[in-house]
Design goal:
- The structure is a homodimer.
- Chain A is α+β, with helices and mostly antiparallel strands.
- The first copy, chain A, has a single domain, classed as NADH Oxidase (3-Layer(aba) Sandwich).
- Helices cover 36% and strands 17% of the residues of chain A.
- The first copy, chain A, has 6 helices and 6 strands; from the N terminus they run αααβαβαββαββ.
- In chain A, strands 1, 2, 3, 4 and 5 form a 5-stranded antiparallel sheet that branches.
- The interface between A and B is large, with 73 and 73 residues.
- Strand 6 of chain A pairs parallel with strand 1 of chain B.
Chain lengths: 179, 179
Amino acid sequence: MRQIYTFMKDTLSIIAQRKSVRHYTKIPVASEQIDILLRAAMAAPSAKNLQGWEFIVITDREKLDYIGERVATARMLLMAPVAIVVCGNVTKYTGESQMNWVVDCAAATENILLAAESVGLGAVWTASYPYADRMAVVRAATGIPIEIMPLCVIPLGYPVKDEPVKDKWRPEKIHYNQW
Amino acid sequence: MRQIYTFMKDTLSIIAQRKSVRHYTKIPVASEQIDILLRAAMAAPSAKNLQGWEFIVITDREKLDYIGERVATARMLLMAPVAIVVCGNVTKYTGESQMNWVVDCAAATENILLAAESVGLGAVWTASYPYADRMAVVRAATGIPIEIMPLCVIPLGYPVKDEPVKDKWRPEKIHYNQW
């Protein structure tokens, strides 16, 4: 536990410092670290508390490479020791609520990214949804059934270097009471 | 700043403790606190770094009540001193990427909820999207143009009481390498 606490910082700093990390060392990521990220994911809010998310942890080198070779935006998988695929079970969401799987899985994904930053892991959100071709590759690699939709693949590993943090503060995006 | 740091906890604890808070005291929320939440929101990742989000801070009692009276799932607005509406600008997302406004705004929303928890504010995600009737109410209250889609309204205030945290850890949702 010592190592984990070493990296702990307050939430506002972690939110501000989170960045996309695309280069990873060969140092393996302990399964306990992955569990911490998955606990964070499942602590996310979900519409009507349906928790319609599912997670696939990929450590199989062939599967990581399979996706990394076929999805240009997920090339980092070729270097990553592990990845988490965040999926939604669309059968949980009916009628007008159908698109809530995207909302819920996005919230869970953000929790994973923040938890990764807080324990010193590098991570990056690589979108599967809404791209039919990328989703097909993830389906082929993981064997998920048709009712399970992959939102994204998150490569994970210890960062090779300090990556820059983008300043995205745009006060002009804030409106008061009225557009 | 003192008061803010009093509430600071490590990120994993804040993620685990975040809960939906639906009852608020009449204590006003300082605009500096709202700015902290909006900074957190804009620190979220976004597809192709498009940052297609917009935020409406509502403090106008009539507008808060207008939405609270018309959207059953957002009744808490009748009690809340302030709310943030998280919106997506769909003109930023073209072709196959169109649905990314939902993804990006959901990540920004989760950051707001975690930042609120970390500074001692109560908050709850009340969905506007994907519900046509709720979105129409938010549009009427705020005057957002047609290309701006409201994802959710987040009532905010100091919590009346300690709200329980749900244990949503479901290890059966974790799959290894293969479904």
